[in-house]
Amino acid sequence: MLKELTSQRLEQPCVEVLNPATQESLGWLAADSLEQVESKIVAATLAQPKWAAQTAKYRSKLLRKWFDLIEQHQQDLALILTMEQGKPLSEALSEVAYGASFVEWFAEEAKRAYGVTIPATFDGKSIRTIKQPIGVCASITPWNFPVAMLTRKLAPALSAGCAMISKPAVNTPLCAIALRHLALEAGIDGELLPVVISEQASDVGLKFCTHPSIRKLSFTGSTAVGKQLMQQSSQQVQRVSMELGGNAPFIVFGDADINEAVAGAIVCKFRNAGQTCVCANRFYIHDSVYDEFAQKLHAAMSKLSLGAGVDGHDIGPLIDEKALQKVDQLVHAATLAGAELVCGGKVASDIGTLYYQPTLLSNVAHDNPVMKVEQFGPIAALCRFSDVDEAIHFANDTEFGLASYFFTQDLTLAEYVSNKLQYGIVGINEGIISTEVAPFGGVKHSGVGREGSALGLDEYLETKYIAVGGLR
Fold first, then answer.
1. Distance separating alpha carbons of residues 226 and 238, to the nearest angstrom
2. Burial of 391 (0-12, 13-18, 19+ CB in 10 A)
3. 456 C-beta neighbours (distance < 10 Å), count
4. Which end of the chain has fewer beta carbons closer than 10 Å to its terminal beta carbon, N or C?
5. Cα gap 319→226, rounded to integer Å
6. Are residues 60 and 194 in the same domain?
């Protein structure tokens, strides 16, 4: 499938797709000009009313066919994902399955966009609501989960009767093209889901935000870019969904099962080389179990292997040189501020140019620079705490509020802490929290809106109130 998605370099502007594991070229894709983006928006605008007029059952059947095709091509899609993004093939297979789950879920939810009948306040009147598609939508998705981030937006949009024009990250466009190819094979009109390939991210984003035909923008990415897009979208009162940055705390209380906590930390922190918005970013460990946790985490980290994702390793490369430099600078700044380097802390240059060693930092102060930013790398920074309220204070002391985690065997403590944490998602004794059946999203500077679950469909629907009189 990979050869079918790329072309030889043409005279027109093109985008080269690189394998971050080897820096080898995977091929060239023609880049869209702003005029071509305009044409795709116009085509989607013309196609959307016909799609919206179809029955929910009809849309559901086509989405189900799309889901079946994604599952049938799971191996091919996973290989494409690993080649252009770098994550281990096992993780890529899981991501494809996760991405497909949104298509399956919203194929079913398409038939459940219910309105309601409201008891009238006067005789001879009726009051009811119906839900209608918002119209043409646009999405901007990141490189770290190029399959799941797209299907999590595109599936509910199509399910609701919308069209969606998508701009994947320029590092990872092949997954989006492959998914669209399978959608067309399932019978979905290609003009309903055009893909924009462009290195002009800010120009395309501005066009999405200001084009009068686009009524909704869904964005996953940094908080800074999200704020800019929200400002631009405000000029036409465009609806937005924003899944922005995170700074997830991982708290281990004194009564926790330490082996389970360490296992949760490994899958939560080092999945995709730490390049996830919901991965553990700050570890707060109770004094009474700090040494045991640190020792066992170190032992578990020492077993992680680095290498190309197609070769069965645990950790692949970072996405590019800029990401690598950011991680290296964070570790350097952390040690300058007093953190103790237990292991890692270097570029694994013997493996490749973009690999960074799994890094454990101990006795890290809460105000250390490494605790204040979204790391997006394989860094585990451990900080001590002495009581419950101190841990809660540390966890909430950030502008972000996407995901949080804690481990305890005390049910009363679990209830108390989960209610106090200022996050859209809380994982208790669990390091993996993402699922299509639950709402995904954050509070504070981590975004607005929810994806997945029944709430995800509502993000693409307008509620219309209909009042009827003269019914005596």
1. 14
2. buried
3. 28
4. C
5. 21
6. yes
CB of 380 closer than 8 Å to CB of 359? yes
Q: Are residues 49 and 63 in the same domain?
A: yes
What's the CA gap between 299 and 294, in Å, rounded?
9
Active site residues: 243
Please name the helix (run of DSSP H) or strand (run of DSSP E) that holds residue 444, with its range, or none.
Answer: none
Is 231 found in the same domain as 130? yes
Structural domain range at position 356: 248-435
Distance between CA atoms of residues 234 and 194, nearest Å: 24
Q: Choose among 362, 413, 359: nearest CA to 391.
A: 413
- Residue 440 belongs to a domain: no
Task: For residue 315, tell me if it sits in a domain.
Answer: yes
Phi, psi of 347 (to 5 degrees): -75, 130
Residue-wise DSSP of 200-255? -HHHHHHHHHH-TTEEEEEEES-HHHHHHHHHHHGGGT-EEEEE----EEEEE-TT
Q: Determine if the pTM surpasses 0.90.
A: yes
The CATH number for 114's domain is: 3.40.605.10
The bridge status of strand 14-18 relative to strand 25-30 is antiparallel
pLDDT in tens, the chain (472 residues): 666 665 544 557 899 999 999 999 999 999 999 999 999 999 999 999 999 999 999 999 999 999 999 999 999 999 999 999 999 999 999 999 999 999 999 999 999 999 999 999 999 999 999 999 999 999 999 999 999 999 999 999 999 999 999 999 999 999 999 999 999 999 999 999 999 999 999 999 999 999 999 999 999 999 999 999 999 999 999 999 999 999 999 999 999 999 999 999 999 999 999 999 999 999 999 999 999 999 999 999 999 999 999 999 999 999 999 999 999 999 999 999 999 999 999 999 999 999 999 999 999 999 999 999 999 999 999 999 999 999 999 999 999 999 999 999 999 999 999 999 999 999 999 999 999 999 999 999 999 999 999 999 999 999 999 999 999 8
* Same-domain pairing of 129 and 189: yes
Domain count, the chain: 2
Q: CA 194, 199, 200, 206 torsion: positive or negative? A: positive
Residue 242 pairs with which residues in a beta bridge? Answer: 219, 448
Asked if 212 and 40 touch (Cβ cutoff 8 Å), the reply is: no
Cα R_g (the chain), whole angstroms: 23
**Is 268 found in the same domain as 232?**
no
Q: Is residue 184 part of a domain?
A: yes
- Residues 175, 262: one domain? no
Residues 400 and 418 occupy one common structural domain: yes
Q: Report DSSP state, residue 315.
A: B
Q: Which two tokens mark 29?
A: 């894709």
Instruction: Assess whether 259 and 273 both reside in one domain.
Output: yes
**Residue 455 located in a structural domain:** yes
